[in-house]
């Protein structure tokens, strides 16, 4: 693919001319051997689309009056909050790196979400109006403006823009007394489409009032009792839907980020606000972080056949504020409980307790084994699951992050169930499986990219969107998990088999009903063929290739180690091609060009059309 092809695909997909500087951006990507299919940048157009439907002066005024923000003028990167926030410093470093590499970064103001949580939940009707008023233009060549305007006042009044932040307390509108807690979910609901399950669902206000929670809203009642809806016999069939909070109303009581955010500062006003992550329904503009920039520098040290048949995870008990009221509803605590043999042993006993409310409930009361063995797990038969889990799971918290810390950093309300587990020395490259779980703001430190580069099978559960999502295919590059984690055991039994692994791995030859699982692991093909910028057709052989269990036999006893290896190696190879430091900068560069245009007063006539001029004889 050459520059002309890239510009043609842009016009075909975006119904606009590429932005000014598109030719230089393409040259920058080509010089770094980057893959640049137009689909890789879909998120940019989704995020910026509504601003085409707003008066440009309104957009510019909100940007000028917001703090904190990063400014770029004549290639000089500065901020009104320099040194105050890690995210500001990190993004400034990336922009300065572009400057060092000779990129002409356009003059822009970049308002930044420096909080850990989501910050913008604009009501759905407001967003729909903005999108409806957005128009695409393809002006005649003679009318196209090929350069950005200078950033000047244009008669706009100076002043501070007030996003009208909403915190976790509700008051009477006219400075009245404190009314009570404001659930974050009360702001998520109006940001979802009116026909979605969340918008039509109940707001569980009672779960914030200890001692007054309805029976139907307790943790035990919200935990799944059957296979997830919209799944393929219990396994994620559509990653976009599985991670869409607008279709998962139960997550308001089963996910720490929603039930107990560590801080809450949300606006319902629409203006450009850059952030590392967002959820379905939130309206921030996604931008790579400095953690993403550095994540691809890690590397695995061992070949697959020398790695341990083990799922290893260490991390803080983040993803919300772990308090006496909240911890049982937090997803990281659920994960740690599910892979603790003692907790699993109690859950096995509770399968036969005869109480409908507590059937299959784990020791901490924050997960359950499905009754009637809905996943057809051999390991759930005969009370063997706890021993099986203990053979391959090495999971623990590095910091309990207690709301009411006691001695040695333990939590008085949960120290019966959890303790701090040290990170074993030199584990990098030693284990085959890992999990990437949301922290306070999704993927907290570039873990997804790090683990892919290391060549592990990545099990991913998330409600957050990131800039990398358009580049990764579930079941090809990573294994998607339902956000309740109900499918975790089924996935691990498929890959590991039913015996307790040892090193080197050995498996019993017990019969397993493979036909019940085979079609779950077929992955989608991409709609668009991926080419490299030189058009040599040497792009990614694994791209769009299914990890198809139909062709698999029991390759390690009754496990499927070869299938796991294919996913790990496909993810690693793809990360080395499209998630490099160069790719982070290429995405950021493209985003800056598009953003600079959408806030320019001449935006409807701006573009790059160098490929459309035909030289005379």
UniProtKB/TrEMBL annotation:
Record organism: Paraconiothyrium brasiliense
Ranges for region Disordered: 520-563
Domain Glycosyl transferase CAP10 positions: 556-602
Superkingdom of the source species: Eukaryota
Cited Pfam families: Glyco_transf_90
Biased composition (Basic and acidic residues): 537-548
Designated name of the protein: Glycosyl transferase CAP10 domain-containing protein
């Amino acid at each position: 693919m050459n520059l002309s092809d890239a510009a043609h695909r842009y016009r075909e997909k975006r119904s606009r001319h590429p932005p000014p500087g598109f030719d230089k951006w393409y040259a920058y990507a080509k010089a770094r051997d980057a893959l640049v299919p137009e689909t890789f940048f879909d998120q940019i157009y989704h995020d910026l689309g509504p601003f085409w439907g707003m008066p440009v002066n309104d957009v510019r005024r909100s940007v000028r009056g917001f703090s904190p923000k990063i400014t770029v003028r004549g290639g000089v990167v500065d901020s009104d909050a320099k040194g105050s926030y890690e995210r500001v410093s990190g993004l400034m470093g990336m922009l300065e790196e572009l400057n060092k590499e000779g990129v002409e970064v356009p003059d822009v103001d970049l308002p930044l979400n420096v909080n850990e949580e989501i910050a913008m939940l604009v009501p759905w009707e407001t967003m729909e109006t903005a999108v409806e008023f957005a128009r695409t233009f393809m002006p005649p060549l003679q009318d196209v403006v090929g350069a950005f305007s200078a950033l000047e006042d244009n008669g706009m009044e100076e002043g501070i823009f007030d996003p009208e932040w909403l915190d976790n307390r509700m008051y009477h509108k006219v400075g009245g007394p404190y009314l009570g807690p404001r659930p974050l979910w009360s702001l998520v609901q109006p940001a979802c489409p009116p026909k979605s399950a969340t918008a039509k669902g109940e707001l569980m206000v009672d779960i914030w009032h200890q001692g007054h929670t309805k029976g139907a809203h307790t943790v035990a009642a919200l935990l799944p009792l059957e296979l997830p809806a919209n799944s393929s016999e219990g396994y994620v069939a559509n990653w976009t839907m599985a991670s869409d909070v607008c279709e998962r109303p139960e997550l308001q009581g089963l996910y720490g980020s929603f039930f107990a955010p560590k801080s809450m500062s949300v606006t319902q006003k629409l203006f450009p606000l850059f952030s590392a992550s967002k959820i379905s329904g939130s309206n921030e503009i996604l931008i790579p972080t400095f953690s993403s920039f550095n994540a691809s520098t890690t590397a695995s040290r061992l070949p697959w056949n020398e790695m341990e048949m083990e799922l290893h995870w260490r991390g803080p008990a983040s993803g919300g504020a772990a308090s006496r009221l909240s911890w049982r509803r937090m997803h990281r605590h659920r994960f740690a409980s599910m892979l603790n043999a003692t907790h699993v042993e109690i859950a096995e006993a509770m399968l036969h307790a005869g109480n409908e409310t507590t059937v299959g409930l784990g020791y901490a009361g924050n997960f359950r084994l499905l009754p009637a063995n809905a996943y057809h797990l051999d390991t759930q038969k005969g009370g063997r699951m706890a021993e099986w889990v203990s053979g391959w799971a090495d999971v623990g918290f590095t910091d309990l992050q207690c709301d009411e810390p006691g001695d040695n950093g333990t939590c008085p309300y949960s120290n019966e169930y959890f303790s701090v587990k040290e990170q074993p020395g030199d584990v990098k490259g030693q284990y085959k499986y890992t999990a990437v779980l949301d922290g306070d703001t999704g993927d907290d430190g570039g873990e997804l990219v790090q683990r892919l580069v290391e060549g592990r099978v990545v099990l991913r559960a998330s409600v957050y969107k990131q800039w990398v999502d358009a580049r990764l295919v579930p079941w090809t590059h990573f294994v998607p998990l339902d956000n309740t984690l109900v499918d975790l055991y089924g996935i691990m039994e498929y890959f590991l088999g039913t015996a307790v692994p040892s090193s080197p791995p050995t498996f019993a030859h017990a019969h397993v009903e493979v036909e019940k699982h085979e079609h779950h692991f077929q992955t989608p093909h991409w709609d668009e063929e991926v080419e490299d910028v030189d058009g040599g057709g040497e792009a990614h052989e694994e791209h769009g290739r299914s990890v198809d269990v139909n062709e698999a036999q029991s390759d390690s006893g009754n496990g499927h180690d070869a299938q796991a290896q294919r996913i790990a190696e496909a993810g690693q190879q793809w990360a080395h091609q499209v998630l490099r430091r160069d790719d982070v900068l290429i995405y950021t560069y493209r985003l800056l060009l598009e953003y600079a245009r959408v806030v320019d007063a001449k935006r409807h006539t701006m573009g790059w059309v160098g490929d459309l001029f035909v030289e005379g004889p």
